[in-house]
Amino acid sequence: MSLLHGLATRALMGLDPEDAHGLAIAGLKAGLGPVGGADDPVLAGSLAGIALPNVVGLAPGFDKNAEVFAPMLRAGFGFVECGTVTPKPQAGNPRPRLFRLTEDRAVINRMGFNNHGLETFASRLSRRGPGVVGANIGANKDAADRIGDYVTGLQRLWGLASYFTINISSPNTPGLRALQTKAALEELLGRLAQAADALPQAARVPMFLKVAPDLEDGEVETITETVAAHGLAGIMVSNTTVSRPDLVSRHANEAGGLSGAPLTGLSMRVLSAFAAAAAGRLALVGVGGIGSGADAYAKIRAGASAVQLYSALVFEGPGLVTKIKRDLAARLRADGFASVAHAMGAK
Predict the structure, then answer these.
(1) What is the Cα–Cα distance from 337 to 300, expressed in whole angstroms?
(2) Beta strand spans in the chain (E)
């Protein structure tokens, strides 16, 4: 089957990227995805108290509408994050809006939070079985009260997700990243905390903030202190970048967020900065540029409790997760670590 999945991935590479993604989702829904084997015990971990069979997760953006989290868990991911979902269905930006930068092993997207909306998303999540499935929530582009959209998402999905991620770091919704500034972040997290306190506490799960890698001096410390003060569990580090480091593809100058291999260095630097600022108070998830076990291992040793990937799947297919886990387990054992927790932060 791995040969067939490899052939399918190469065939999809000949299509428009967004069409290829749609076909991949359809194939997964039809049961055509890979099935991962049993996890090596050394890969088990914990994310803000959530037990993970392995620490390699699927980043949001792949399963925007909570359609294929079960097949992706079966493929071998330790956890899957769905979304970003907004209260109202949203078409997103005009096509083309997704670009493969094959020579750079990268992707540029300017999707614009295209999704089927909260009600459809909630209906699908309500039928989920076992496994760790997170919900990444956002705001509609035309929302009069963007913070209110996050509160609505939290309230509607309460009790349905294993954890929540508050996405204020997409570069493709104008003005959204302004919510990372101190005053706006204080208001956002304050209102979310108030809403969470009013909901059934038996269903309470961890909340994370997803941040951009393009932060100014001092912003890492400010964000860390604000997140800690409002009782969030941790930070997802990081989203796509608006920078364009040393790209050679003909799509290099397309507008949007860059992900994939060129993001590796920047995301590592930002992760290390958050790890230093958090000093063990927050759970960190390393995201950005992960295409191998070595990449995942580096993020764990920099302080991440777990990692997420997506863009590398564009080039390797969903079977990549098995390769990454095998390599990560070998690296942990070679360096004498009995678990991911022992390696975390062990620069």
Answers:
(1) 12
(2) 45-47, 50-52, 56-58, 79-85, 98-101, 106-109, 132-137, 163-167, 207-211, 234-237, 257-260, 283-287, 306-309
CA distance 80 to 184: 28
29 vs 68: CA distance, rounded Å? 6
Going by CATH, does the domain composed of 2-343 fall within 3.20.20.70?
A: yes
What is the DSSP-derived secondary structure letter of residue 59? P
Gap between the Cα atoms of 110 and 99, Å rounded: 9
Each residue's pLDDT, cut to its tens digit, for the chain (347 residues) gives 454 556 567 778 889 999 999 999 999 999 999 999 999 999 999 999 999 999 999 999 999 999 999 999 999 999 999 999 999 999 999 999 999 999 999 999 999 999 999 999 999 999 999 999 999 999 999 999 999 999 999 999 999 999 999 999 999 999 999 999 999 999 999 999 999 999 999 999 999 999 999 998 899 999 999 999 999 999 999 999 999 999 999 999 999 999 999 999 999 999 999 999 999 999 999 999 999 999 999 999 999 999 999 999 999 999 999 999 999 999 999 999 999 999 999 97
DSSP of 215-233, one letter per residue?
Answer: --TTHHHHHHHHHHHTT--
CB 283 within 8 A of CB 205: no
Q: How many angstroms separate the CA atoms of 22 and 96, rounded?
A: 14
| pTM (two decimals) | 0.97
The answer to whether 30 and 344 are in contact (CB under 8 A) is: no
Give, as one character, the DSSP assignment of residue 42. G
Tokens coding 26: 């359809």
Report residue 20 as tokens: 């290829």
Crossing angle for the helix pair 264-278 and 219-229, nearest 10 degrees? Answer: 50
Half-sphere exposure of 253 (CA within 13 A, CB side): 1
Instruction: Catalogue the active-site residues.
Output: 170
List Cβ neighbours of 17 (8 Å cut-off, separation of 6 or more): 98, 99, 100, 107, 314
